[in-house]
Design goal:
Blueprint: H1 2-12, H2 15-33, H3 39-46, H4 55-80, H5 92-100, H6 104-129, H7 134-139, H8 142-153, H9 155-159, H10 164-178, E1 181-182, E2 189-190, H11 204-223, H12 239-248, H13 250-265, H14 271-284, H15 298-321, H16 327-339, H17 352-380, H18 388-407, H19 411-428, H20 433-457, H21 461-464, H22 466-503
Antiparallel strand pairs: 1-2
Helix pairs in contact: 1-17, 2-4, 2-17, 3-4, 3-16, 4-5, 4-6, 4-15, 4-16, 4-17, 5-6, 6-12, 6-13, 6-15, 6-17, 8-20, 8-22, 10-20, 11-18, 11-19, 11-20, 13-14, 13-15, 14-15, 15-17, 18-19
Length: 504
């Protein structure tokens, strides 16, 4: 084992591997910042350039680029409430309010440090857990995945500040939008109205660009000033504050990293679900949950730590069984084929040094991204002070180009605009856009796994599979927690008001 660790590191300490990693990291940061792209696009564009090189150098290029997009996504989410891709969505909820309060540098630094710590924890657990994870993955079936998707829906209560009915309405609308296109089981067209374009459904990145990026630019245009008005709000935060925040909330980082590792291990769940789940658990376990959504630094640290660890988790099923943990890992399998590497038991015996090369790549790439990120944080933090006349056309141009680039259809640009109007209206009337996205993300996963569970295990599958029943009880408990906490808070406030009234 120690020999494999050492040889894995030695394979990366060649000029070619180091150069490829640096190129991959810089390229990944640029791609991550552009809306609608992200890690999958970054890796796909690099695949043609990976043939004919050493395996370690090739993987350094691909994984370095993919890991860099994690923080690249965070930048525009924090500065402009414009998610670079689906996994950057959860950074908008507290990162953007921090920017509007003159805390952009602190938020970016906390984000970069959280991603670094999460990535290192994920890499360490990847190295330790590969021999142990096989029975865990094999024990999970469609019914367990269904329960975990249903658990994701409990986040609705977290984001439904003020009105649970509005939160449920937004979520139901997201589910309806997700059902546009072909039925995942019967291949029957739904809500397509005879349109060939809608047969493929609504692209999730395009919808998200509209809901958040285009909607925010509409608000900024109507406001007529910059996101942060220098005359009223000064940038008072520092990089060092953000670094200290990440280490001060070390237990949150550990919890979020373990959550990201676990979700990464589950094939097909995805980093967007991981980010939302991390934000929800950070809010539910906080002593002051009312601060979330208003600029709580924990709401920045938790999703980034989770997404950093998610990369290590996604490699586990990819390496151990050849089952991709997500879209980016599927592209990594294509690279393995080009390198002549076969994932599975052989990967963990004959090619163990290559496995540890990937563990080292995750660690070193995270360190590189964080160092670059911390160095440019103060300069990036100045961007929100640009006036709306310059900001709006620039960001909208990038957004619409990103929308077109996702699938190459001009109709996606129209979809982004329509969802921009929808996002603006939802925000104006306080319907949670986060709940809309949660419904859209989880709808297909719930539908597919429900059909398979009913077919394999019958209509009482919840009670015939012990692990499913345990997860079902967990879903009920976590759903009830926000309501119990609110009830206790109201009782405490009422008791305090009664005591003050008695004293008066």
């Amino acid at each position: 084992m120690l020999e494999a660790i050492a040889s894995g590191l030695a394979a990366l300490l060649t000029p070619q591997a180091i150069l490829f990693m640096v190129i991959g990291v810089i390229y990944g940061l640029i791609i991550g910042i552009l809306p609608g792209l992200g890690g999958v696009v970054a890796m796909a564009l690099l695949l043609p350039f990976t043939y004919g090189f050493e395996p370690a150098a090739t993987l350094a290029l691909l994984l370095g680029a993919h890991i860099a997009t994690v923080w690249g996504d965070s930048v525009t989410s924090i500065l402009f409430s414009v998610p670079g891709s689906a996994k950057g969505l959860s950074l908008c909820f507290d990162g953007y309010p921090m920017t509007k309060q003159g805390q952009a540098t602190r938020a970016l630094a906390a984000s970069a440090t959280g991603a670094l710590l999460g990535g290192v924890i994920g890499a360490v657990f990847l190295a330790l857990s590969i021999p142990l994870i096989r029975p865990v993955i094999l024990a999970l079936g469609p019914s367990e995945y269904l329960m975990m998707a249903l658990w994701g829906l409990t986040i609705i209560a977290t984001f439904s500040e003020g009105s649970l009915i509005k939160g449920l309405t937004a979520s139901a609308l997201g589910v309806l939008v997700a059902f546009i296109g072909m039925d995942v089981v019967t291949a029957t067209p739904r809500f397509t109205f005879g349109s060939e374009f809608l047969m493929d459904g609504i692209s999730f990145p395009v919808a998200m660009i509209g809901l958040f990026a285009v909607a925010e630019m509409m608000k900024l245009y109507l406001k007529g000033t910059s996101i942060v008005d220098r005359a009223l709000i000064k940038e008072v935060s520092t990089v060092w504050q953000g670094i200290k925040d990440a280490f001060r909330h070390w237990w949150l980082v550990v919890r979020s990293s373990l959550l990201g590792l676990w979700i990464g291990v589950l094939p097909g769940v995805g980093a967007s679900v991981a980010g939302l789940a991390a934000y929800a658990q950070a809010m539910q376990t906080s002593k002051n949950p009312e601060r979330f959504g208003k600029g709580a630094v924990e709401g920045v640290i938790a999703p980034d730590a989770t997404m950093g660890a998610n990369e290590g988790g996604g490699l586990m099923p990819t390496l151990a069984f050849g089952i991709p943990g997500g879209e980016s890992m599927a592209l990594l399998l294509v690279a393995f084929i080009g390198l002549g590497v076969v994932p599975g038991p052989e990967m963990l015996t004959k090619n163990l040094s290559l496995v540890f090369s990937m563990v080292w790549i995750i660690v070193i790439a995270n360190v590189l991204v964080t160092l670059i990120g911390l160095a440019i944080c103060p300069y990036l933090a100045r961007l929100p002070t640009l006036h709306a006349n310059l900001m709006v056309p620039t960001v909208l141009s990038v957004c619409f180009v990103g929308a077109f680039a996702t699938r190459g259809h001009i109709e996606d640009v129209v979809v982004a605009f329509v969802f921009g109007v929808l996002g603006y209206v939802m925000d104006k009337y306080r319907y949670s856009r986060a709940n809309f996205v949660i419904g859209m993300v989880l709808a297909t996963m719930i539908e597919r796994n429900l059909h398979i569970s009913l077919t394999l295990h019958g209509e009482f599958f919840i009670f015939t599979r012990p692990l499913t029943l345990i997860l079902f009880i967990f879903v009920i408990v976590t759903t009830a927690l926000p309501f119990i906490r609110n009830r206790r808070r109201k009782k405490a406030q009422a008791a305090q008001a009664g005591t003050q009234g008695g004293v008066a």
